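Materials and Methods. Structural model of Serine/threonine-protein phosphatase 2A regulatory subunit B'' subunit gamma. The 426-residue sequence of Serine/threonine-protein phosphatase 2A regulatory subunit B'' subunit gamma from Heterocephalus glaber was retrieved and submitted for structure prediction as follows.
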Amino acid sequence: MDWKEVLRRRLATPNTDPNSEFGRSRPLGQPGPKLELPAEDEVLLQKLREESRAVFLQRKSRELLDNEELQNLWFLLDKHQTPPMIGEEAMINYENFLKVGEKAGPKCKQFFTAKVFAKLLHTDSYGRISIMQFFNYVMRKVWLHQTRIGLSLYDVAGQGYLRESDLENYILELIPTLPQLDGLEKSFYSFYVCTAVRKFFFFLDPLRTGKIKIQDILACSFLDDLLELRDEELSKESQETNWFSAPSALRVYGQYLNLDKDHNGMLSKEELSRYGTATMTNVFLDRVFQECLTYDGEMDYKTYLDFVLALENRKEPAALQYIFKLLDIENKGYLNVFSLNYFFRAIQELMKIHGQDPVSFQDVKDEIFDMVKPKDPLKISLQDLINSNQGDTVTTILIDLNGFWTYENREALVANDENSADLDDT
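The predicted structure was written out as tokens:
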């Protein structure tokens, strides 16, 4: 495999895992000492500040390895590999590693340290590291810095965070560089950008401040998912599970249009009630429209996206926080027997309407408390729900008849699946 192929794959699948050593570096624009920003009417000072930031970012960009320098590094590493190979994997010892560092140029100096070598040293009996792993490490670092600089260009305030409009501009200008979005109609761009930006803000701005730290954008996996769309050979399965793919964005927007029966561009409570399996309770939907931003009692696309992100990611803390706020009808910061009963009564009513046998609230209440095991035996806090890893099950039981039926009949459904598997094997 030559260096170009390695580079192509690296760019197609960038990695900014915050738990890895490759994802933990100080972002450009991370707030340092507080500096006064020019006032809105100080046009000259604002322009001067923008120009100085642009010059600073350009200088930072020039400090990064370019493609030619990466190619040279790859050739040097290949030339200094230390035999024997492990399978098809070329290795290098510390002595040759230092020799490459001396020849690779000043930009590479930061990578050729004992600390980096030790990080990549695993169980090789000759005390060597994998050339491929080291090269991937360098490219992860370069990619991370490139992305940081790219995001910082949109940080108008220069304070280390992006506002919604900043991130919208970043993604809008990114679209033409993502081959997987080539088929998108330009008329759909604004809806695509809204769909993409909403995921960042739903999960990274839980307090709804209207801004996200660049540090948090780099540390999460969403940017990886978005830039995965650079890969021209991305599988259909990967596209379907990627929120930022064209099929996924069109699916979400298409659902919104299908729910909008009166074609006024907004959703009423009655229209939203047909979401999914159309089995959410009226009590829960009432709470959605009481707590979420609406316009004359109807929901716009942005508010709908929050709703979808919450219901499609019920295991995530941000989604549980969204749903918990709706379930906490007394705004006490916890769920008690009264609030659980308030929502479950609506499930019981739907069961009667559909001719299903009634289920005792007492039994369901006991099951919920057994699942969550809250610190206070009479109250369930949001943190209790998150810590239990049962938050998705608990919330589903309380808001959706189909979800409750699936939970109640889980053992029978598992048995049916096992019987079907046995029949397939015969």
